[in-house]
């Protein structure tokens, strides 16, 4: 019969019967169930004279983490002096982290005069001989836990790479399909908000302005689960939340395999995977945002427009993110005349507006000087007039005779994409046939190796070279596929542009929304002298269709007086 434990107050201490079962242990294993653990521990305790006992049960908690409700309640009772003995079915029920489990068994329990027993492992802290092998058993339990974790992670990874959603909370605007929990469908209540956010981004609005607009319009950030009172946080759209939404490939119908990975099994910290290195599976569910619009938003964000600092010039730079130097390709920086210059136009005697004091200059020239790249300076007023006139003329043509305008753009697109579609297809067929031939050769080589005709080293050398050729062929096939796809989609692109520009037939002023809806980028050429007159080429690259030269082909040059 075991000796009786007395608490500090003189009362008899109880025996803690601790039971734990995690999801990884499996519900089908009856011998591991909570009910069987309770029966085994009660029988053992009472046979050994420990009649005053209490159950501490953690059902559904991993053994790698000791922050479990009932385990922590048991520790609190030990601290209070209520427990004299702890019994578990085996060492793994206490925990599978051998470092922490060993710390409790060898340090914490002895320090608090608590006896520890693991029934089926034959461990009893009163028996030193049995305790000597306990650390090794804990290590085996830890290794088992690691192995289970790897298998679970491999299963989740495999499902995720099939395009199945394996996360917890679904992205805002999407929800789980009731018939397939791994498949996402559009949430009809939230999707319009996502559409609104992308529309504002396509209009050139930044994350801060979008955030303010949503909060001004009192658009909720989430649905309430009950009729509780709504506070201001219910309408708070942070800038980071908007940025995350605009970068999220789920909204174009794609699936993101992983955004982060855990540093270690025992670590509660994770490393974020860089966005460009994330694995994305396309076309996994219905898209809220068309892929081409989603990609356009990414390009606008990546443009990273520079913000004017150190000056109170009221000019609103509507060209940010789309104006570039035609020589070096760097973005053009906005600048304005220094303070102290007169604000009165000497010719008209009228006060000059902010736009008349603003100009754009090459970023490379500004940093490294004209020996690297000329300034390409262009006045903001001139740029406004050039772009506005070009949009007005194209919109008028689209309205006047859309069929003729369509044919003109289609011819232009053919010059861009249709090098020779038949030749491209022939090359695709040749590469596919070659890859099939390589597969047959590798199979024959494997047969020769199995027969002993070919050595392992020679086999690896030959197959390595052929697999490298196959990979090169696959990359080329991808590029050729893009050429064919672009040529096949040109009709849709032309129609989309015509529909878009017809909306601006009566435009009299430029704004940010118009520019970003119509124009991909503007290239500013170097100022040159032709017949004693300064000229400068400005190329406007439109969305969907690229540059649209004049029908009289292609001077594209706009005379500009030197301000």
Written description of the protein model:
With 563 residues, the chain is an alpha+beta fold. Helix content is 44%, strand content 15%. The chain is elongated, with a radius of gyration of 36 Å. The N and C termini lie far apart (106 Å).
User: Could you give a short account of the major beta sheet?
Assistant: 6 strands, mixed
Strand content: 15-25%
Portion of residues within helices: 40-55%
Count the beta strands. 20
Query: Averaging pLDDT over every residue, what do you get?
Result: 77
Shape: elongated
Cα end-to-end separation: 106 Å
Q: Oligomeric form of this entry? A: single chain
Work out the radius of gyration: 36 Å
Question: What is the helix tally?
Answer: 16
Low-pLDDT parts are 306-312, 552-563
Derived from helix and strand composition plus strand pairing, the structural class reads alpha+beta
Give a brief rundown of this model.
By secondary structure, this protein is α+β, with helices and mostly antiparallel strands. Helix content is 44%, strand content 15%. The chain has 16 helices and 20 strands.
């Amino acid at each position: 019969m075991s000796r009786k434990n007395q608490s500090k107050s003189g009362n008899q201490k109880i025996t803690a019967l601790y039971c734990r079962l995690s999801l990884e242990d499996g519900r089908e294993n009856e011998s591991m169930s909570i009910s069987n653990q309770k029966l085994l521990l009660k029988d053992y305790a009472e046979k050994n004279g420990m009649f005053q006992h209490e159950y501490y049960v953690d059902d559904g908690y991993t053994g790698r983490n000791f922050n479990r409700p009932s385990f922590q309640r048991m520790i609190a009772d030990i601290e209070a002096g209520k427990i004299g003995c702890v019994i578990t079915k085996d060492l793994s029920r206490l925990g599978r982290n051998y470092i922490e489990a060993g710390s409790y068994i060898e340090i914490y329990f002895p320090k608090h005069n608590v006896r520890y027993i693991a029934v089926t492992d034959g461990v009893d802290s009163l028996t030193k001989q049995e305790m000597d092998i306990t650390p090794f058993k804990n290590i085996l339990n830890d290794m088992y836990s690691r192995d289970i974790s790897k298998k679970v992670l491999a299963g989740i990874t495999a499902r995720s790479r099939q395009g199945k959603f394996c996360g917890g909370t679904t992205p805002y605007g999407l929800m789980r399909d009731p018939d397939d929990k791994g498949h996402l469908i559009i949430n009809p209540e939230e999707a319009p908000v996502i559409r609104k956010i992308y529309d504002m981004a396509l209009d050139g609005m930044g994350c801060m302005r979008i955030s303010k607009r949503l909060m001004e319009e009192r658009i909720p950030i989430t649905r309430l689960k009950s009729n509780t009172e709504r506070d201001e946080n219910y309408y708070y759209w942070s800038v980071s939340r908007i940025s995350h939404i605009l970068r999220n490939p789920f909204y174009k119908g794609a699936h993101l395999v992983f955004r982060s990975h855990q540093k270690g099994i025992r670590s509660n910290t994770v490393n974020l995977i860089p966005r460009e290195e994330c694995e994305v599976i396309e076309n996994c569910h219905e898209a809220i945002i068309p892929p081409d619009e989603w990609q356009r938003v990414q390009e606008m964000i990546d443009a990273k427009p520079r913000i004017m600092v150190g000056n109170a010039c009221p000019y609103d730079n509507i060209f940010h993110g789309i104006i570039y130097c035609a020589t070096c390709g760097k973005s053009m920086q906005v600048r304005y005349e220094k303070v102290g210059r007169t604000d009165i136009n000497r010719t008209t005697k009228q006060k000059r507006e902010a736009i008349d004091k603003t100009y754009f200059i090459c970023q490379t020239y500004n940093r490294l000087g004209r020996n690297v790249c000329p300034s390409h300076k262009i006045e903001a007023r001139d740029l406004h007039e050039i772009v506005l006139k070009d949009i007005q003329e194209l919109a008028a043509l689209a309205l006047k005779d859309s069929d003729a305008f369509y044919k003109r753009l289609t011819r232009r697109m053919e010059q861009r994409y249709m090098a020779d579609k038949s030749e491209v297809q022939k090359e695709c067929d040749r590469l596919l046939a070659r890859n099939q031939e390589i597969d047959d050769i590798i199979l024959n080589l494997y047969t020769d190796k199995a027969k002993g005709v070919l050595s392992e080293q020679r086999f690896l050398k030959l197959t390595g070279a052929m697999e490298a050729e196959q990979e090169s062929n696959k990359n080329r096939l991808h590029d050729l596929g893009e050429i064919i796809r672009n040529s096949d989609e040109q009709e849709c692109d032309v129609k989309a542009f015509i529909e878009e520009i017809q909306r601006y037939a009566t435009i009299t002023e430029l704004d940010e929304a118009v520019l970003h809806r119509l124009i991909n980028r503007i290239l500013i050429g170097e100022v040159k002298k032709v017949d004693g007159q300064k000229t400068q080429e400005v190329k406007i690259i439109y969305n969907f269709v690229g540059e649209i030269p004049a029908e009289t082909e292609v001077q594209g040059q706009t005379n500009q007086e030197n301000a």
